[in-house]
Write a structure and sequence with these properties.
alpha+beta, 8 strands, three-stranded antiparallel sheet, 2 domains, 162 residues, 30% strand
Length: 162
């Protein structure tokens, strides 16, 4: 695994030199320059796809730096919402994404992988808080659906602080 020190968003478009404003959709790319890897940020209208030699790239939205920090809901609230999603057959991809977030927050831990009765891969997750085990089908959402899930989780489970 290669580690890169990624600098923060420059808040200026590498193609137009225009300063980003809150709400701008932008793309960022990591590009090798000599022995370093440099981050280049582009406003969406100036993005023509990643540079040919890009190490990686992603899409994001510029937030207001004065809006205050975002805080996640308490872990118990997030776990309760995750359990509610277990009952919704149409929420497999959202359940998977939230499950991964809860693993990252150390609320759940991955105990293994197995196949369900339909032959689909699933994560076996364990929660020490309630000594419960969960099985979550590994459903990789499309980029558009992932953005929608992220927006939904942010609206439900995040709040602004100051």
């Amino acid at each position: 695994m290669i580690d890169f020190e990624i600098q923060r968003c420059s808040r200026r478009c590498a193609a137009t030199d225009r300063e980003f404003v809150a709400g701008d959709v932008c793309f960022s790319a990591l590009v090798p320059e000599g022995s370093a890897v440099v981050r280049k940020d582009y406003v969406a209208s100036a993005w023509n796809g990643p540079p040919e030699n890009a190490v990686g790239w992603w899409k994001t939205m510029i937030v207001d730096p004065h809006a205050g920090r975002m805080y996640w809901a308490p872990n118990d609230v997030m776990l309760h919402y995750f359990e509610r999603l277990l009952e919704d057959p149409a929420a497999e991809d959202a359940r998977y994404v939230l499950g991964l977030l809860l693993v990252r927050r150390r609320v759940l831990r991955v105990e293994g992988h197995e196949k369900d009765s339909q032959g689909r891969e699933q994560l076996v997750l364990y929660c020490s808080r309630n000594e419960a085990q969960y099985r979550v089908v590994e459903v990789m959402p499309t980029p558009e659906r992932a953005a929608a899930i992220q927006q939904q989780l942010s609206e439900l489970l995040q709040t602004h602080g100051s």
